[in-house]
Specification:
Elements (H helix, E strand, L loop, with lengths): L2 H16 L3 H12 L3 H21 L2 H32 L4 H32 L4 H21 L8 H13 L4 H13 L3 H13 L6 H12 L18 H6 L3 H23 L2
Length: 276
């Protein structure tokens, strides 16, 4: 990473911290530097109470800024730093001990985040009825944390049900959220449900709020997908059927996939004719 990138990252981090009120900033620092589990738990509980109180006192835009600041400063950035450390230790010879320690520390931070945002959601639900956007963001944060937990729990068989439930709960509160549609598409891609993932990414792109990252995710999925590979998830490929039969039983997901593949095939044909 060049010096300019490091400087920009530090500036962005400082901007997020500047949005935290003084009392929350002090609690956030205690949470990040504490090594003792009891001290960390007390700091997280105090931060949770103060954050809930501050959200009730603020307007909608200020609430989102505060929630994003707490999420990024206390959980997202530390978790991403530990994930980078794990990838680095995995590449180095003799880094097994460091890798195990980093994995334990990462899972502790993830479980701490799950407990924090689950408690925050309950506090917000009990405080006021106009905090629905804040509850929505709690569901999104919990979905991300549950996804991280499955990625790093060491189990060979992954279960994304908890993460999916949180994202679907968030989608119920905000049906036009492109962010949540993209996250559901990521889960579908983890399970090799290619058509369902394409459908979710398309919904994310065309949603009222939009989500720019979904376009690159969709392009990457289409580029790397070979039709016929995921036969276990495409029941119409189990037996030979006519094209008319497929069109008659076409779902919205299949329609999106077919149009994308036809466009890709058409572009490939034009390119081949151009270079002849």
């Amino acid at each position: 990473m060049c010096i300019r990138d490091r400087y920009q990252r530090r500036v962005r981090g400082a901007c997020w911290l500047m949005r935290l009120p003084a009392e929350l900033h002090q609690l956030q620092q205690k949470l990040l530097v504490a090594d003792d589990p009891v001290t960390r738990a007390n700091a997280a509980a105090s931060l949770q109470q103060e954050c809930a109180r501050a959200l009730v006192e603020r307007g909608p835009s200020a609430r989102e800024q505060l929630e994003q600041a707490v999420w990024k400063a206390c959980f997202y950035r530390p978790i991403e730093a530990k994930r980078r450390a794990i990838r680095k230790n995995a590449m180095e010879p003799g880094g097994e001990a460091l890798l195990r320690g980093a994995m334990v520390c990462l899972m502790d931070r993830i479980l701490e985040g799950i407990k924090f945002w689950a408690g925050m959601r309950e506090l917000l639900l009990a405080s006021a009825s106009d905090l629905v956007p804040s509850v929505y963001r709690c569901h999104v944060f919990l979905g991300d944390l549950e996804r991280y937990a499955q990625q790093h729990n060491g189990a060979r068989a992954k279960c994304w049900d908890r993460s999916r439930r949180e994202y679907e709960a968030a989608l119920t509160l905000s049906p036009g959220s492109g962010h949540v549609q993209n996250q559901l598409g990521v889960l579908e891609s983890y399970e090799h449900h290619t058509i369902a993932a394409m459908y979710r990414y398309c919904r994310a792109i065309t949603s009222p709020t939009g989500f720019p990252q979904a376009r690159s995710n969709l392009e990457e999925l289409v580029r790397t997908w070979t039709p016929g590979v995921n036969r276990d998830h495409m029941s119409w490929e189990d037996v030979p059927v006519s094209y008319t039969h497929l069109r008659a039983h076409e779902t919205p997901e299949h329609l999106v996939c077919r149009l994308l593949l036809e466009k890709k095939k058409k572009n490939t044909t034009i390119n081949k004719q151009h270079y002849k």
